[in-house]
Specification:
Elements (H helix, E strand, L loop, with lengths): L5 E7 L6 H11 L18 H11 L6 H17 L2 E8 L9 H22 L2 E6 L11 H10 L4 E4 L14 H9 L3 E6 L5 H10 L4 E4 L7 H10 L2 E4 L1 H6 L11 H6 L4 E3 L11 H12 L3 H14 L4 H12 L4
Parallel strand pairs: 1-2, 2-3, 3-4, 4-5, 5-6, 6-7, 7-8
Helix pairs in contact: 3-4, 5-6, 12-13
The structure holds adenine and zinc ion.
């Protein structure tokens, strides 16, 4: 499974920071991070809201464009070792300069340069999806949307929304999505993770997204499942994240296979891998055990992901060719 070429569409950059990386930066900067690690040195949290707290506490060590360049390089090296050949990562101006456009440009340049280097060294391609944080509220989502619109291009290709889904309604965030769409960005939104089918419906209807982050609770509404299948709305499913955060009790009860059987285009990602003790390879292995999917099915899922990637057609064509190869 490790050498199978993979496409990952749903990955939070800060959420992919290995604990040792975060501790290293904390030591350099004398930042006290007690309360976010367990005795083994792993991230420690209790449920989704506490996960968000720990996630945000860990970002305190990321204070400069150089820190983000190091993080990008570290994460891409780990992804490449898992067979990932193309990834999209959520990046938040809130954490990179506090929504200030000039500062954001500096952070972005540093991340983009690190991504270019990784492409040369490991052949992995990275694109960025600008993502305001939902629980910071609709007002604070405007600055990141403007940052996204101003920097749309070769690296920033998408716009989304992460954070606590129970805060606000999708339409409260429509201004940012309209702004991003006008700038030519492709759209996705976390929905159907901590809220039910109405949240997914609202994201599709009011934000006009073409992909949904998670979307797995659509399974509670067969009419919605049919609608997603018919419209070809792609789900960025992160089963290990859902199980670690307690959304489903185990791999057997996760709905990804049922959604796929119903014709919904599903893809597989890790979300925040070290938080959930997962990697792309582990996701595939656990899915294979729970669903019986074989290599051909994972290859088909990766073709769906390549088709839904927020990239230009040359990048997509190259990606599809690389996915045909036996291994990376
Ligand atoms: N930010 C990082 N991981 C997230 C998740 N699983 N849901 C919502 N926001 C997030
Ligand atoms: Zn996510």
């Amino acid at each position: 499974m490790k050498s199978l070429p993979k496409v990952e569409l749903h990955l939070h950059l800060e959420g992919a920071a290995p604990p040792a990386f975060v501790r290293g930066l904390a030591a350099e900067k004398s930042i006290d991070l007690r309360g976010i690690f367990d005795e083994r040195g792993d991230y420690a949290y209790d449920g989704f809201i506490d996960f968000l707290r720990v996630y945000e506490a860990a970002t305190a060590v990321l204070q400069s464009p150089e820190d983000y360049a190091r993080l990008t390089a570290t994460v891409l090296a780990e992804l490449a070792a898992e067979g990932v050949i193309y990834a999209e990562t959520f990046v938040s101006p809130d954490f990179c300069g506090g929504g200030d456009l000039a500062a954001w440009r500096e952070y972005l340049a540093a991340m983009h340069e690190a991504a270019r280097r990784a492409e040369v060294v490991d052949g992995i391609v990275l694109k960025g999806i600008v993502t305001p944080i939902r629980h910071f509220g609709p007002e604070r989502a405007r600055a990141p949307a403007l940052c996204a619109a101003e920097t749309a291009g070769d690296f920033i290709t998408g716009f989304g929304l992460g954070g606590n889904e129970s805060v606000g309604r999708p339409r409260d965030f429509a201004w940012g999505f309209d702004c991003a769409r006008e700038a030519g960005l492709r759209l996705t939104c976390h929905a159907g993770e901590w809220a039910g089918p109405d949240s997914v419906r609202g994201a599709v209807r009011d934000l006009r997204v073409e992909r949904i982050g998670h979307g797995v609770r659509a399974i509670e509404d067969p009419a919605l499942v049919g609608d997603l299948a018919e419209r070809g709305i792609v789900l960025e499913v992160c089963p290990g994240s859902n199980i670690a955060l307690g959304l489903f009790p185990d791999w057997k009860s996760h709905p990804v296979a049922r959604l796929r059987e119903a014709g919904v285009p599903v893809t597989v990602s890790t979300d925040d891998p070290p938080f959930f003790h997962t990697t792309m390879t582990r996701e595939y292995e656990r899915l294979a055990a729970a669903t019986g999917w074989d290599e051909a099915e994972f290859r088909a899922i990766n073709r769906v992901a390549a088709g839904a990637a927020f990239c230009d057609s040359d990048t997509r064509d190259a990606l599809l060719k690389r996915l045909e190869k036996p291994d990376v």
